Fold these 4 entries.
Entry 1:
Amino acid sequence: MSLVDFLRNHVFRLFELISGPDGTMALLENFKTNIKTVAFDVIEQQLDDLKTSGVLVLKDFPDRALTIFGEDILIAQIVQNLIENVWKNSQAKVLKICFTSDIENNRVQALFLDNGIGLTDQFSFGGGLKTVRDNARACCGEFEIHNLSPSDHYYSEGFRTIAKVVLPMLA
């Protein structure tokens, strides 16, 4: 077998490993999630608790799908824990969830804003926020939470706390 035939065979085998029915591309399909769909499902599941707590949910989502890298169960846990954190701990009456896409950098930003009491001096990450942080990292993303400053435009809308999750966007 010539070197050219040898290389051709290996290239075809690699292509099959990547593109075949059990290849890398098929495996990666399991890690695509439309974060909007997940958020709508989680909000629906949490609706009774939100209503009981007197929390109004405002959604600011773009019309198009926001497909991100991450398993839907991990994304659902992120959204669920951030929503629960608001109705269980913040004493908020309004939760605003905003999704934006940064097409240039292939990122989706999810903001969870509330008009509650803000983070106190005794604030620390509990199990729910640790799960948010860990799941965001597992999806190659980032998580932060902090009080808004009076100079932030969301502060002028009455919001006091912001949780931000940034995740890779897939085309």
Entry 2:
Amino acid sequence: MPNPQLVPAGEPAGPPAAPFLSPADFKRRATAADRFQAVPFEVPDFGGSVYLRRLTAGDLDEYQAAVAKCPDDRTRATILAHAVADATNRRAFLDADVPDLAKVDAAVLVPVIRRFQELNGLLPKG
């Protein structure tokens, strides 16, 4: 039985795939400064907005290592410390701020963390 995924010779293969990028073009696009601008997020309970970080590959490694080594009772506070940024996309909180961030109201914390994870592709699709 023929493989239905193979296209017979001379038959159109369907819509063209997206063009391939050269390594230099990929690097230029992937590292463009505008890709890493902090994103405003409204926090109605606090009467204002905060900036959320866009992570680079290095930031992601740092974030995942911090979450992996934090005590279980500080996981969400550690994520929050890595999520909130200043207007230049730099972390607004230090690791030393985690004990204080552990006191943030969960009703405020959960939407902030969820949006940060969405922005950075850290949530499963669907």
Entry 3:
Amino acid sequence: MGINADAVTPEQMEQYECYQNELNRAASEWRAGTGARWADRNPTDVEGTNASWMTRYGKPKTWVVHDALRTVPRDVKWLEIGCSSGAHSRVLEAVGFRGLVGTDVNRDSLLAGSIGRVCQADAAALPYPTDGVDGITTGGTLMHLGPADRLTESVREIFRVARSYVFLVELWSAEPMMVLFGDLLPPAWLYPWEQVLLPFMDDGWEVVYHEVHHLIKIKGQSKLTAPMGVTLIARKGL
């Protein structure tokens, strides 16, 4: 059960193998500084995030999130994985949620201004019991969690810890691919959303909202486009 690493093309795997010996160093760099540099590339306040989404997708992110979560009670407590400096959490707060908790492996990003409570944690080993939080959310995090085996571990943890909801705002691709963002390591990995999520959705979960927003161009990849998917998964019967 999990993501099929064989689905990656030989060319992409050859490209990845060039980085394989550097992954441990790159992960350490992400903790020590790359994560903070990534956070610096993006707005952290709601106004800036909305402006960025208007430019890329023609809609403010608060509108998109409100529409996706319109049926979710506002007393649900969210845990954000890969919260960085808190932009995604602030959007959830802007649409009425409180008591958010953020986790990130990069301590500097956490100190830069995440809202609510924060803790330094690895997405593949969350310090929470099974069904330990109401809901788990991510905003542009999954692509940074590594190739197939690493991403599988993290998604398994998300579904283990979430009691009622999983809400993801993520870039997806039609087929597995690796994306380089300038000098930022490790590289990002994109997958089809069904390939990432469906293996972990047993009879107790169902997709209740999935909206794909228009294609964007990823900086540095002149011919690469990837859709932004907004997906709400809930326990059946809620």
Entry 4:
Amino acid sequence: MLGTVRSQIVFQCQRDDAEVLAKSYQPRLTANDLMGLGTYEIAIRPSVSGQTLAPLTGTTLPLPSATRDGSAAAEGSRKRVGRPRSEVEAALEARRAAAKATDGPGTATSGTGKNFGRRRKESKASETKTNEPSGDSQAGDATKGAATPLPPATAIAI
């Protein structure tokens, strides 16, 4: 699985893991280096613009203190990543208008101008119906790959 990983970040690890991971970090870092990382220290092998760079080490920030106040967590999230409701609704309307303008055969809206996004896969029940033998051998094949469009996207304004 490590062959498919682009950027790697390693915190202190045990010998077995360090020996496997060290192959990706050699010759700059060894298994002992990976086992000896301190608190908040990391070893990283970043992928930038599709190219993996030389390994390096760094330090992370400690986690903030835990909170049990759900409303405080929601408010903090709202401040960091929230957008005004009017902005969200305007963006959705722009997407609907763009989907309607480009609507045509083979699009996710299939001529309705109402839906956009991924198509929903057929349920197992409908696949069973289409796979049943019938007098026309191609009847099941014609509907087998058909997709049901998703309903319009909804947004939660913060």
